[in-house]
Amino acid sequence: MLVSTAIAACTYLSSLQTAMKVPVMFAGRTVLNKPAMTEKVVALTFDDGPSPFTTPTVLDSLKKHHAKATFFLVGQMIHRREYLLRRMMAEGHVIGNHSWSHPYHPDPAKAKDEVRRTNQAIHQVTGFYPAVFRPPGGIMDSWTARLAKAQGLPSVIWTGSSADTATTSSAVVYRNVVAAAHPGAIILMHDVKSHTAAAVPAILATLEKKGYRFVTVPEMLRIWQAAKKKAADQQVAAKVPSTGSTKS
Ligand SMILES: [Zn+2]
Fold first, then answer.
1. 46 DSSP β-pair partners
2. Cβ of 134: how many Cβ atoms within 10 Å?
3. Ligand 1: centre distance to CA 79 (Å)
4. How many CB atoms lie within 10 A of CB 117?
5. CA 99 / ligand 1 centre spacing (Å)
6. Using CA of residue 171, residue 174, residue 180, residue 183, what is the dihedral sign?
7. What is the pTM assigned to this prediction?
């Protein structure tokens, strides 16, 4: 009995690790330029949480649609909200590092501490170190981004934005996200915004109707990798001269 429970636990843990795995080609890189692709998948990303007020609403909506997402957490928000991290993990979402206190331009020493403290806080609750990082403000050359990349974490920017920090209207957030949803898109949202939480059900329903599937960032990067490989293979095939076409 005990042995079978232990085996089940190990299988669960190894499947979790696989789900969070990021292709080597993105390790320590800035993730920004989406390859051309046709597969209808989008990665919704939620930054700056967790919030006890709005994150549960977002999680409820995602669950209803069997949608997976990525939450880039601010480390100092985790204390007393550990139950939200456990819920994210249990429901198949991915947790990323979004620094400890969200500074835009910290010096190298502070930036190192920002990345390290959040990695540790997430590990303490979930048992896993995050496999993805998003720099505060999406600032690609900040010290937090550089130091996270030096640790092998991909620095994940976005291909489209909800622009939910520039509005308080759920209708605007809905319109922006639906417009930003293309095959392979990574979309920026904030689960700490109540107007964003309120827009999520309609976003999911509309995109689902358009045939989209909702994946985590690590899964999206695996899909990007396959698309990049396919494009490279096609380029090689196009360069190979056809036989019998040359005359001496
Ligand atoms: Zn942020």
1. 71, 189
2. 30
3. 18
4. 17
5. 9
6. negative
7. 0.91
Instruction: Using alpha carbons, select from 70, 79, 76 the residue that is nearest to residue 99.
Output: 76
And the tokens for 47? 């930054």
Any idea what the Cα angle at residue 126 is, between residues 122 and 131, rounded to 5°?
60
Active site residues: 47, 190
CA of 165 from ligand 1 middle (Å) equals 10
CA distance 180 to 199: 14
- Could you list the pLDDT tens digit for every one of the 248 residues in the chain? 566 777 777 776 677 677 788 999 999 999 999 999 999 999 999 999 999 999 999 999 999 999 999 999 999 999 999 999 999 999 999 999 999 999 999 999 999 999 999 999 999 999 999 999 999 999 999 999 999 999 999 999 999 999 999 999 999 999 999 999 999 999 999 999 999 999 999 999 999 999 999 999 999 999 999 999 998 888 888 887 655 544 44
String of b and e for 100-116 (b: at least 16 CB within 10 Å)? bebbeebeeebbbbbbb
Domains contained in the chain, CATH given: 23-233 (3.20.20.370)
> Distance from the CA of 54 to the center of ligand 1, in angstroms?
15
- Ligand 1 geometric centre to CA of 222 (Å): 24
Separation of CA 48 and ligand 1 centre (Å): 5
**Entry field: residues in the chain:** 248
